[in-house]
Structures are given as structure tokens and as C-alpha cells.
Write a structure and sequence with these properties.
Elements (H helix, E strand, L loop, with lengths): L15 H11 L2 H14 L3 E3 L5 H4 L21 E2 L13 E2 L4 H9 L6 H13 L10 H12 L5 H11 L12 H9 L6 H12 L1 H5 L3 H8 L3 H12 L9 H4 L6 E2 L3 E6 L2 E5 L8 E3 L1 H11 L4 H41 L1 H6 L10 H8 L3 H8 L3 E4 L2 E4 L7 E3 L5 E3 H13 L9 H10 L6 H10 L5 H4 L3
Parallel strand pairs: 5-8
Antiparallel strand pairs: 1-7, 2-7, 3-4, 5-6, 8-9, 10-11
């Protein structure tokens, strides 16, 4: 017997302007220039303002409030000044190695998948952390893809496309936890007895392995201590942070990184400005707007169709211009909030003056979503009088020192690195001993926190650092 039910489901749809803005916010300056040029080529309604006619253009702004057809368009000022008068040719560009995410995107280009699948896979790649891990569950990823990209998908499809990404170099990329990362690295190896045994230990006895319950593993598998040593030797040769080794795997490419921001000291205070380079000013071509207005009172079918076409292009131009304006404002507000939060650092570049800062801190200061701040921070750079920095550099977790003052994890990691470099390699410091070293310096840190930071620094455990 068939039963008919009615279900009410609430969904949130992004407007064309919101979608356009999200896409533009993610772009660094050079890619933004390319995107604008592409839009200028594809949309005849958009045109570039010529510099020598700048002052008179404001009077020529088009208002569509005069259009009184059956589908009225709200009054809109179709013009935005997105290029400051004081262009700064002294902004530097510099070459960097191909980034971790760029290498994954390049490898995706060789996969035989359709455009829809490619967009989903690109989104997955974008969610992979710099250390190579994907710390998102499939359900939330599928929901985010549906919401952000407007592509309906499910957990099964996301999982299938993730498996494709997990076949990329560096081996182990896209893993959701350490166990999966290590298993991905063992899979393509020649399946010798030690490799097969290592795979079984990780798959079936990972908890025992991490707790070093070796006698329990030997008893359950019925293997000798020598067999266990050979299997463990295979495991410890694997890379727990595949993303951290990208520079060793890829040759340097000529990639010009253009700082999106410039911070200068004026009267002893950091002041931010935004370079525009060749980003043009945009406005609507008045001739096409006149075609729309003329056709509004025409009964001719051909003119009505022409008017529909032009109106679509006008709407597209309107959204694009406003999206560029919103991008500019969002980037400006975010960078000013970072400067305000890290004020002391921007005075002299002393890294010890960096305060613990996470995305939520800047989201609260600007009133923007954390996801928006994340997009702004991605692939953006700031030029200061003491160097060029990725915006990601300024974000880190925080800890409270013994005197109650909050300190950056960057400071803790620096002390850890120095302590390990200066240790006696015949008797390297254990994580417990590193906790004591930090405690003697006034930092109260748990052993598991020390272990986490050591792994993030790609430093092996004490036993593996020992030298004869």
C-alpha cells in the first residue's frame, strides 16, 4: 500500500551577489585582476573607466529607476571606485615554491572526472589543512558543498572523490586521522612481510601501537620481537605530516605573489593601505542601458528579446561591481582588525610580541562569519617594513603562562625547537622532560600538548632522535 507524506524542508539559498562575493574574496590580487579581465571580455555591458576621464564619470552613472517595464529593476548606482588615486608602484612581488594546495589542484587536472565532480574535488582540496589532513566529516562536507557551491551531493559521492584525492602526491594526503595517513603510505609499497605486518598492526592494533603495548601485539599476532621490530621500522619511516614535505617534493616555480595589503608606520603607528595594481575601475556601458530603457515602451518582439538579454547582462554587471566593492570592504575591515589585534608586532616585527589569535577573534571584531575570515586569510599577503607575511602567519592558539599572561603557541614551539636542538642526542628529551623544561621557563603545558606541538613541528619522539 502506497502512503503519501508531505515534508517541509527549509533550505537557504545564496543570492547571485553573495555567491559572486564569496568567490572574489578568496582570490589573491593577481587572480582578481585576471577574473576582472575575463568578466570585461564576456560581458559587453561592463567597461573600464579610462583614467583621464575619472572625474567626470560620476555624473554619467546610470540609474535604472527610469525603467518602468513589467520587470522593474531597483535603482542602483552601477559604479564603484575600487582603485585608489595613490597607486603604489613600490609594492613588491616575490617568487615562492608551488604551494601544497596548488600541487593537489594541478594533479586533479589529470583526473578523468566531469566538471561537477571537479568542483566538488576542488572544494575537498580546499578543506585539507596544511599538514595534509582533512579534519571534516563527510556529512558536513556534503552539506557545505550543497550550500556554498549550490551542488547537491551526498556523503557517498564526497567519499568517492576523496579517495581520488588520496591517490595524489604526497602519499598520505587527505587522510582523516594519523592511522589512515600511515595506511595510505603503506598501500603503494612493495608488500613484503614487514609491510604487510605493519599494515595489520595499524589497522587492527593502532591504539596498542600508540601506547607501545608491544608485548600485547606480539601475543595477539603470534609474532617474534624481531618481526615486530621490522614492522615498526616500516612504520616509523612514514611521514605523519605529508603536507609539511611539499617543498621537498616539488620544484620551485615562478609564481608572483602580490601583497594585498601594505602596512607602514606613520607617526609611530601602523597604517594599512591596499594596492590596486592593474585592477581597473568598472562602470556600466550607458549605451546598453539606453537600449533597455528604449525597449521598455516598445511592443516589438525583437526589441523585447534584446531588452531581456541586456537586462540580464546589466544585472550580472551590477552584481559583479558590487561584489568587488564588498570584497574590498571585507578585506579592509579584516586586515585592520588583525593590525589592531597584533598592534605591537606591526611596530617592529618582533615575533615574541604576537598575541594568540584565532579566526573567531577577528570574526568577533569585524562582525563577519568565521568562514568569511577564513576566505580572506587564504592566499593573502601583507607587506611590512620588516618583511612580507602570509595572513595565516598571524593566527595561532594560545596558552596561559604561570604568571597568568596568555602566550602564543608560536612562542612555545620556538622554545621546544631550541630545547630539542640543544639536547644530548645520546639521551634525548622525552615529552615529559620537555614539559619540565617549559615549566622551568614559566610555561605550564600538558604532556599531550607538548606531543601535539612536537608532531606539528615534524619532530619525532625521543626514541627516534637518539644517536649512538
Amino acid at each position: 500500500m502506497l502512503k503519501q507524506t508531505q515534508q517541509l524542508k527549509q533550505t537557504q539559498r545564496l543570492s547571485p551577489l553573495q555567491i559572486q562575493t564569496i568567490k572574489l574574496i578568496e582570490l589573491p590580487a593577481p587572480e582578481l585582476e585576471q577574473r576582472i579581465q575575463k568578466e570585461l571580455e564576456e560581458n559587453p555591458v561592463l567597461e573600464e573607466v579610462v583614467d583621464d576621464s575619472l572625474e567626470g564619470e560620476e555624473k554619467k552613472n546610470v540609474s535604472l529607476s527610469e525603467y518602468s517595464g513589467s520587470d522593474p529593476t531597483p535603482s542602483y548606482k552601477l559604479y564603484v571606485n575600487n582603485q585608489g588615486k595613490d597607486l603604489k608602484p613600490q609594492y613588491n612581488t616575490f617568487s615562492v615554491r608551488e604551494s601544497f594546495h596548488q600541487s593537489l589542484e594541478a594533479q586533479l587536472g589529470y583526473c578523468k572526472i566531469d566538471e561537477r565532480e571537479r568542483q566538488i574535488a576542488l572544494f575537498i582540496i580546499g578543506m585539507i589543512d596544511d599538514d595534509g589532513y582533512l579534519r571534516r566529516d563527510m556529512e558536513s562536507l556534503a552539506d557545505d558543498i550543497s550550500f556554498r557551491l549550490g551542488i547537491e551531493t551526498d556523503e557517498e559521492e564526497v567519499e568517492r572523490l576523496l579517495k581520488i584525492v588520496q591517490e595524489f602526491d604526497p602519499v598520505g594526503v587527505g587522510a582523516r586521522d594519523l592511522c589512515e595517513c600511515l595506511l595510505l603510505q603503506l598501500a603503494p609499497k612493495k608488500q613484503t612481510e614487514p609491510v604487510q605486518l605493519a599494515t595489520r598492526i595499524l589497522r587492527d592494533f593502532f591504539v596498542e601501537f600508540t601506547k607501545k603495548h608491544y608485548s600485547k601485539i606480539m601475543a595477539k599476532l603470534g609474532i617474534s620481537e624481531e618481526q615486530l621490530k621490522e614492522a615498526v621500522a616500516e612504520i616509523v619511516r612514514l611521514n605523519p605530516r605529508p603536507g609539511g614535505q611539499i617543498d621537498d617534493s616539488y620544484t620551485e616555480q615562478v609564481q608572483q605573489v602580490v601583497p594585498d595589503f601594505l602596512v607602514e608606520l606613520k607617526d609611530g603607528e601602523p597604517v594599512m593601505s591596499m594596492p590596486r595594481f592593474s585592477v581597473p575601475e568598472l562602470k556600466v556601458n550607458k549605451r546598453y542601458a539606453d537600449v533597455l530603457m528604449e525597449a521598455a515602451n516598445s511592443a516589438t518582439r525583437e526589441k523585447k528579446e534584446a531588452a531581456t538579454f541586456v537586462k540580464q547582462k546589466l544585472d550580472s554587471a551590477k552584481w559583479f561591481i558590487e561584489a568587488i566593492k564588498q570584497r574590498h570592504n571585507t578585506l579592509q575591515n579584516t586586515m585592520n582588525a588583525i593590525i589592531d589585534y597584533q598592534h605591537d608586532f606591526f611596530i617592529d616585527g618582533d615575533e615574541t610580541r604576537l598575541k594568540p589569535m584565532v579566526l573567531r577573534n577577528i570574526a568577533e571584531k569585524t562582525g563577519l562569519d568565521i568562514s568569511t575570515i577564513s576566505r580572506v586569510v587564504s592566499s593573502k599577503y601583507v607587506q611590512t617594513h620588516f618583511g612580507i607575511y602570509s595572513l595565516k602567519f598571524f593566527f595561532s592558539e594560545g596558552l596561559v603562562a604561570n604568571d597568568g599572561e596568555e602566550v602564543s603557541t608560536r612562542e612555545i614551539k620556538t622554545i621546544l625547537t631550541t630545547s630539542i636542538e640543544e639536547e644530548d642526542k645520546r639521551k634525548p628529551l622525552t615529552d615529559e622532560e620537555l614539559v619540565k623544561v617549559l615549566g622551568d621557563k614559566g610555561y605550564k603545558v600538558a604532556r599531550r600538548t607538548v606531543a601535539k606541538y612536537r608532531e606539528q613541528l615534524n619532530i619525532p619522539i625521543a626514541r627516534l632522535r637518539k644517536e649512538l
